[in-house]
Design a protein that fits this description.
Blueprint lengths: L6 E5 L4 H10 L5 E6 L6 H5 L5 E5 L8 H18 L3 E6 L19 H24 L3 E7 L12 H20 L4 E6 L7 H7 L9 H9 L6 H17 L1
Parallel strand pairs: 1-2, 1-4, 2-3, 4-5, 5-6
Helix pairs in contact: 1-8, 3-4, 4-5
Bound molecules: NADP nicotinamide-adenine-dinucleotide phosphate (NAP).
């Protein structure tokens, strides 16, 4: 193996787009940090990677709890410090679309998990990343897996749209605060053939009036294969690391 080019932090490596990206990055000269829950499910994938891989086991829904976000931030900062390279990529990929339901039908508490997973957990991880890159005089590239839903309202997706929009704006603020050391890219993967889409198709028309359109995309074979999209992310990551 040639010299390790940098660190890639990947959230949500256990399924869909994140799992495909993990497989691809596992063949690159990068040190990987994966953050997710029940990581034993991808033990075989992780074991097959010859480059260093660090696992942080964390249920990102727990980011609703301040003590837990502190734990995540601390654990990540420590792992990054052990690796010690000055180029860091954060592929912020973990996300949920639920709860699906129209305004008035979703209780306030329904927003806790999407806000924790789609916004607060990325905030905690970015805090650790920023502290780390500043400590090593390094640079950070955030590849934020966003969505059309971050900029376009869709009925039944208030929790998803608003949490994705908030994450996008959060990263934009970071980009304008620290342009010398941080680069931000929002990546809209399009409509993917992953378990997230299965959850969308399982919604009722009352919950998600566009459900038939999304089912038609699946039935007509028009969903994008996640591997194809993961390749585009891999390219962006490796290009930045080689600059
Ligand atoms: N699918 C689409 O059409 C589409 C379109 C636009 C944007 N996106 C975005 O693409 C990204 C990847 O989505 P996907 O389609 O690959 O969905 P997916 O197959 O459902 O994967 C989502 C990932 O997030 C992780 N995650 C969810 N809740 C978690 C929690 N509480 N703790 C830790 N990890 C958690 C999942 O882990 P578990 O395996 O433990 O659940 C999984 O690894 C998301 O940010 C999504 O918003 C997807």
């Amino acid at each position: 193996m040639s010299a390790i080019k940098g660190i890639v932090l990947l959230s949500g490596p256990t399924s869909g787009l994140g799992l495909e990206l993990l497989r691809l990055l596992g063949q690159q000269d990068v040190a990987l940090v994966v953050v997710g829950r029940k990581l034993e499910r991808i033990g075989d994938v992780l074991a097959a990677i010859s480059a260093p891989v660090h696992r942080i086991e964390f249920d990102l829904a727990e980011a609703q709890c301040p003590e837990k976000t502190e734990q995540l931030e601390k654990a990540l900062f420590e792992v990054l410090g052990k690796i010690g390279l000055d180029r860091l990529v954060f592929a912020s990929n973990a996300g949920i679309v639920e709860p699906i339901g129209q305004v008035g039908d979703v209780p306030v508490s329904g927003f806790n998990a999407p806000l924790a997973i789609n916004l607060l957990a990325p905030v905690a991880m970015t805090n650790a990343c920023m502290r780390y890159v500043k400590s090593v005089n390094g640079r950070l590239f955030v590849l934020n897996v966003s969505s059309g839903a971050a900029t376009r309202p869709l009925p039944g997706w208030a929790a998803y749209c608003s949490s994705k929009a908030a994450a996008r704006m959060y990263f934009d603020v970071l980009g304008c605060e620290a342009p010398a050391i941080v680069r931000i890219q929002h990546f809209d993967p399009g409509v993917l053939d992953t378990p997230m889409q299965a959850k969308i198709r399982a919604a009722s028309e009352q919950q998600f009036p566009l459900v038939q359109q999304f089912s038609a995309l699946k039935n007509e074979g028009r969903l994008k294969p996640p591997l194809e999209v993961a390749r585009q992310m891999e390219l962006r990551i490796m290009e930045w690391l080689q600059q």
